[in-house]
Design goal:
Its cofactor is FAD. The chain crosses the membrane at residues 26-44, 56-75, 96-115, 135-157, 169-187, 199-219. By secondary structure, this protein is of the alpha/beta class. It has 3 domains: 20-223; 228-318, Elongation Factor Tu (Ef-tu), domain 3 (Beta Barrel), CATH 2.40.30; 331-447, Rossmann fold, CATH 3.40.50.80. It has 15 helices and 13 strands. Mean pLDDT is 87; it is low at 1-16.
């Protein structure tokens, strides 16, 4: 006889995020909406002309400028935002804001060109303005850069480009922002109409650029000067996995949490320019930081050859995959592949009763298994290896299907669930949890996406 699992009705609180995430999201929404409202007020206060197409174009340009400033805030990697939303969520926002910039700037150029077009047409009008008016040529260069970045960021193009190539092109966005701002200063009627408008735009850009300089330059530089990171040991875990221990000064003041990751630069002549994101594979203890890397690419493979004593430049800690967002006394940790590293660190730090599901195709691929077993015994946790191919079917259905998850963890609805692993595995687990009615505020996943 076959029984069918009936998913329970989702509780009313299912759509709520944790208080930390709610506060961060609310802060971003309020910032964006309040500034959009004020930009609209300044536009109207500057005087609206009779040419509707030009008016639409001007307003689109102002919204595009605001979106650029907001984009800088998203990529600044400010600790307060990052710890509450996570790099992957901020990167998702970054992507959508990027396309908003793309379309508002298209509208800015097209509407103004059409509105001002003479008998020779809009293209001739754009050329005339570029050659005769100050700041227009800079705006067109900025516009062209944004168009290129937008096109190569589309999924169909992104898949065909090497990450390094895409990243290099993406960095030109900063050049475009500078040129766009200089255009706004030169010809922006709203910018120059009143002292209030001028002060507002200068303040907004100063805040946005200041956030980037603090989060991306000053804070990493200060932390590395203060902590003086060096390689203390390089320990093979398996034929293709290695753990690197990083020592430094006053590591207890770093503020890192289990589940977070750093961008690591090993300062050798052939590696100093390359930053690799690796999670902490052990909870920070004030004595050392540990990362564990699998030889998946050239950068990861070369880490096993790093010498003891090598200076390290570390950016971070980053990520919201921490106990800060735990809402229930007990937890389920789900790890797959190299995603076991932050899960292993979380197991060391997390409170309450814990169940760990470790998904591997073959038990011989279970990295850090002995450490997990030792931690599970010490904490009274339950560790279960979930093995087999992705097509394997158990007596309870697919390995990570809802029936099998609830068979392995009957009280899953009453636990926070932390998931880290390949994208396909993560999506499968989240889908199963959704079918089981696990509230979304209890589901925490890290995908390690980076906003540039």
């Amino acid at each position: 006889m076959t029984t069918t699992l009936q998913p329970p009705v989702r509780p009313a609180s299912a759509g709520r995020a944790t208080p930390h995430k709610v506060l961060a999201k609310a802060g971003l929404y309020v910032f964006l909406l309040a500034n959009a409202a004020f930009v609209t007020y300044l536009f109207n206060a500057a005087g609206v002309g009779s040419n509707k197409l030009v008016n639409f174009g001007r307003l689109a340009g102002l919204y595009g400028a605001l979106a650029m400033a907001f984009q800088l805030l998203l990529v600044a990697r400010l600790p307060w935002l990052d710890r509450r939303l996570g790099m992957d969520k901020l990167t998702s926002w970054h992507r959508w804001v990027g396309f908003t910039i793309f379309f508002t700037l298209v509208g800015h150029l097209v509407f103004i060109a059409l509105g001002n077009a003479g008998p020779d047409g809009p293209v001739a009008e754009v050329i005339r303005q570029a050659t005769e008016l100050e700041g227009i040529l800079r705006a067109l260069v900025a516009w062209a850069i944004i168009m290129v970045v937008g096109i190569v960021s589309a999924r169909f193009a992104r898949r065909r480009l090497a990450y390094e190539t895409w990243h290099f092109i993406h960095l030109y966005t900063y050049v475009a922002i500078f040129l766009a701002f200089s255009h706004q200063v030169a010809v922006g009627s709203t910018f120059r109409k009143s002292a209030l408008a001028t002060g507002y735009w200068w303040g907004l850009w100063a805040f946005a650029l200041g956030s980037v300089l603090i989060g991306r330059v000053a804070l990493p530089a200060y932390r590395n000067w203060k902590h003086q990171f060096r390689v203390a040991a390089v320990v093979p875990e398996s034929p293709n996995v290695v753990s690197v221990y990083i020592e430094g000064r006053d590591l207890d003041q770093l503020g890192a949490k289990a589940g977070q990751f750093f961008l690591w630069r090993f300062l050798t002549k052939d590696r100093w320019w390359q930053a690799n994101p690796f999670s902490l594979s052990a909870a920070p203890n004030g004595k050392y930081l540990r990362l564990t890397a699998k030889a998946l690419g050239t950068g990861s493979a070369d880490i096993r050859n790093v010498k003891v004593g090598t200076r390290v430049f570390a950016e971070g800690p980053y990520g919201a995959f921490t106990t800060m967002h735990q809402t229930k006394p007990n937890a389920l940790l789900v790890a797959g592949g190299v995603g076991v590293t932050p899960v292993r660190a979380l197991l060391e730090e997390i409170k309450g009763h814990v169940v760990v599901l470790y998904r591997v195709s073959d038990p011989r691929e279970a990295v850090l298994l002995r450490e997990l077993e030792g931690l599970a015994r010490a904490k009274g946790a339950v560790l279960r290896l979930v093995t087999g191919s992705s097509k394997s079917i158990t007596a309870n259905g697919p390995l990570l299907g809802p029936e099998n998850i609830v068979a392995l963890v009957p009280d899953v609805q009453d636990r926070d669930v932390f998931i880290c692993g390949p994208g396909g595995m993560t999506d499968a687990v989240i889908t199963s949890l959704d079918e089981l009615g696990v509230p979304s505020n209890q589901i925490h996943a890290e995908r390690f996406a980076l906003a540039n």
